[in-house]
Amino acid sequence: MNKQPLEITVNGESYSLAVEPNRTLLELLRDDLDLTGAKEGCGEGVCGGCTVLMDDKPVRSCLTLALEASGRHITTVEGLAQNGELDPLQQSFIDHGAVQCGFCTSGMLMAAKGLTLSKPDADNKEIRDAMSGHICRCTGYTKILEAVEAVVDRSKEKR
Question: Which among 12, 47, 5 is positioned nearest to 26, based on CA atoms?
């Protein structure tokens, strides 16, 4: 297959690559850029483990072709912490015990980040809707929802 040129920004860093047309964004992130936070759980877009942000919107990177991300800004879980400080969502997951085996955590964090960027004053139903479709094999949903709600509540208090 003929490789195609790809210009992409990942976690604030620009890349110029040549990729095969059938290569997924998940493969590019994990295999070419060594960003292994996004996980392939199902390869069918069902589990949410591969969720990243594309222009601040959650996408399933196992279903997204790398070439679809051309010219876009991708944020992975590795890009959440800034200047050595955890993102408020990351800290809240720790504080609320929302991390168990950790396999789903990056996808859950990225879905929550997409929500807090688009709707910082989300209500409980909106939080639940944003987090639906993300599978936690450890059944940690209650603590995960509490962690996201705490960040949204703090955001509301600051306004």
Answer: 47
CA angle (31 as vertex; 112, 90 as ends), nearest 5? 25
Q: What pairs with residue 67 in β-bridges? A: none
Distance of CA 19 to the CA centre of its chain: 22
Check which CATH number belongs to the domain holding 12 and give it.
3.10.20.30
Q: Find the domain containing 112 and state its range.
A: 88-158
Q: Are residues 17 and 74 in the same domain?
A: yes
Nearest alpha carbon to residue 127 among 98, 85, 102: 98
**Distance (Å, rounded) from C-alpha 159 to C-alpha 150?**
15
Helix, strand, or coil (residue 52): strand
pLDDT one-digit tens code per residue, 108-139: 999 999 999 999 999 999 999 999 989 988 87
